Amino acid sequence: MKIHEYQAKQMLARYDVPVPKGQVANTVDEALNVADGLGGDVWVVKAQIHAGGRGKGGGVKVSKGKDAVKENAGKILGMQLVTHQTGPEGQKVNKVLVEEGMNIVKEFYLSMLVDRGTQSVVVLASTEGGMEIEEVAAKTPEKILRETVDPTVGLLPFQAMRLAYGLGLDKIDPKLIRPASTMMANLYRAFESEDCSLVEINPLVVTGDGRALALDAKVTFEDNALFRHKDLVALRDLDEEEPLEIEASNADLNYIKLDGSIGCMVNGAGLAMGTMDIIKEVGGEPANFLDIGGGANQERVETAFRIITSDPNVKCILINIFGGIVRCDVVAEGVVAAFKSVGLSVPVVVRLEGTNAEKAHEIIANSGLGDKLVMADGLQDAAQKSVDAAAA
Question: How many Cα atoms occupy the beta-carbon half-sphere of 86 within 13 Å?
């Protein structure tokens, strides 16, 4: 689950991670009131959407004077902000964050994320603040510092200090080493306590008055841990998320909308990824990732059908189920019943392998649905039949 920058900063501040003074605003008048409250004569007006690259798209403006705040807030609020992460359709800006202006001496990059390879949290840092870390990794990988955190002991003081020295903070001001190390320790504490999957500070800045603080903040939470954090669930901005993904989440289905024409219904994330790969291999495009889990009963299949067919781009549905824990004949009965209950108008190709697969084939063949419900022999055949049906 993603949250807005202002929400991320509020959370980090609770863990004593230094952030700029600022407040969110929904209107131009509110933005001016925030600027009044902050004082000074320079402010930054920042669009609040769930995407990076806002500055390049015109969603971040340094505003010198109240007239500039008024003008920039007016331009940003309501705009359809297009960045490399939103796609060409962009996202509408409903909120802006107004923050204090500051004298920035140097920008850095700092992030923490789960490394599934080492089953640990990894801390990444770089002197190339303000740039996308992927670009830094591609062009100057030697500028990325890395510390792997043992989850049994957490981020150790020497690791935080090694990162601080590696960034060259001592060359700017030796007094920065201790507060910067403390900030990293507090950031890790927030990451662990709130069950984050990513915390990214880009940039982490050093100011002319000797402060080190998070000028920007991106936080993503692990969805599977949200049951422990009801307060975080309340931060979800439904206007920023795909409605079908929200509906699927409420039904305990793992669904991600894509741009293709072949709907996918699969049990198991790995099998779902393999299914999408083979669809592309035979010339098709998947319309979604959907993992229905181990319980492929009629109710779950019916819900999955409704979600998939809510996407008008779907021209065919491919069901790929491996019957291990769940029997294939039970899945087949559920598919036939759900097909009739939902009243599908698009063809469905079914590939069932595993326990009672032969019986499942008989159930599909005797369903009376004819060419609307087609059984496939193997995944390659299923993918090809789906592509052909979508093109028909």
Answer: 21
